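User: My collaborator sent over this chain with a note saying "see what the structure looks like." That's all I know about it. Can you take a look?
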Amino acid sequence: MKTEDFDFELPENLIAQTPLEKRDSSRLLVLDKKSGVIEHKYFSDIIEYLNEGDVLVLNDTKVIPARLYGVKETTNASIELLMLKEIEKDTWECLTKPAKRVKIGTVISFGDGILKAKCISEKEEGIRVFELIYDGILYEILDRLGEMPLPPYIHEKLDNKDRYQTVYAKNAGSAAAPTAGLHFTKELLEKIRKKGILIQHITLHVGLGTFRPVSTDDINNHKMHSEFYMMSKETASVLNNAKKQGGKIISVGTTSARTLETIMNLYGKYTECSGWTDIFIYPGYEFKAIDNLITNFHLPKSTLVMLVSALAGKENIMKAYKEAVRLNYRFFSFGDSMIIK
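Assistant: Without extra context I'll predict from the sequence alone. Here is the result:
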């Protein structure tokens, strides 16, 4: 299967640069994966597609101010780091610019030495591994020194950094937001609960690999970056019970979907666990863990377009995306939404 098969025309003016004033006022494209029938709604109508006994699974990861600007201690050269994932305590993989200036032993200073990063390993694609040196609490230091790591296709400044967090964000560790969840408000979640839909959380700390376009011609040659996930005993129990009783499992976002499918592939059921996943879902994959998916509109030739094509069928997705472009839906992180039912 070729990467080109997942390309589509996207006018640049449809790439959303800022979030809407009201989270749940975004548009909602409803796609029936069996019939291919498309409806057009607003996100606040999502409750119509959820039934009593269904489980809505949210990724409660929290984006950290992971973009840092510092200087090399020896030369004062400017260096930018984007913290991607914590391998072990105070040891982080970071996307480094310019990476060629950073070798093993290089020390980068941020905020006049409040935080230092010593390079301990070199990896491909501009990634370096750093040991972080500081006094105090890391996330408090990042709040002072770091910037929110908005995707490269967003050129506008974000006035309120909370708008790049879901309203239920809890566990710090992501380099990017699980953007399907940005449409939910606390009020909408309460309405969903009152209808008898169960709401559960998992955690997957989102790295940048999820969003990058695939650079290989043959998708089988693409390698996903690994990301850390966790599921609690309570969530596993709720999901297993719902599945037994015929309730649908509705994943909010591709990050939740990848976590649930990883766990089901490993254990054959939902279970309390944590680990690293590099699951790559594309057409031909048989879904075992989720029934429906709430998601945004994704980059051409990305692994995310491939994932939604695996769930709904490539022909259905390309038709839906063409319709979304025709009707000026807003794309990507701050854009409009879709439910595949």
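A starting point for your reply to your collaborator: Helices lie at 138-145, 186-194, 233-244, 254-267, 303-312, 314-326.
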